[in-house]
Amino acid sequence: MQNKAAFIITALLGALALAFIFYSIINPDMYRKMNPVQPIGYVFVPDDDEFEGRTHLMLLSVVPFKDVTIETVIAHFKKKMEMNYQQASFYQIGEGSNWAVEIPSLQKGERYFYYIEINYKEGSQTTIVRIPEWAPQKPLPYVTYEGRPKKLLVVIHVVMVLGAAILLLHGLYYALVFLQTRSDNRMLSSVFKKTYSIVLWSWISFTFSTLIIGYYIAYVVFGTGWNGIPFGDDITDNKSLFVVLYWGILLFLRSGDRLTISPFKNRISKRTFCTWLIVGILLTALVYFIPHSLFFQ
Fold first, then answer.
1. Which of 90, 195, 247, 285 is geometrically suited to a Cys-Cys bond with 174, CB 3.0 to 4.6 A?
2. Would 297 be classed as within a structural domain?
């Protein structure tokens, strides 16, 4: 019965993670306003990355609902530290509702922030619609120019990060079994040994995939390997550092079972370790739910 409860809790958390991943895939970020009461509607799906050396193509759909004339569609874009926006005019693709524009390339690691203005005329009145509506106030859509990492290395990186997450779910199951078991010291010792080993290998996998492989991939893609604390405010790097430190400290506090030399000794009980493991699982899940390559504008 205890094992069944632990399995159900672990399965529910895993299902929640899969549901979040699936939702993120089928619901990309977009700016959409299709209200027939309004003179025009639009759909714009931003693509936030582009390879260095290539111009960035933006596609926009503008649908007139009333007798209006689309006069101009303009992209306003600039780099982060620039004061003034550059402009590029969209061109209509055929006679339909689709519009396109290309903005110039940048070096890898650089990015444009931009917004779009649709100028349309209804009778004698000219109206400007901005995408997003709060532009030019932040946050704005952006495009980051990137280098090309080796695909095999990216696959290894992703597999190891996902593998670390799966191992943690496995560790959660054993931690719940340990906390629910009040007798049978022999069983408790065996369960805790499995719990600690699983968390250790999860930590090794995550640390190697983020701080070593991830550093190299970031260097190839963005030109700098690390943009987190203390050198920058990249949320992806900082959240990876948080996960590595949290689990590293927790493992160290119960390292006496594996290493008998100083300073490795048991500073917390097995039950405390399992309790903080559950807390760490929840914190790590929140970290995984933060979108990749997020940063402060």
1. 195
2. no
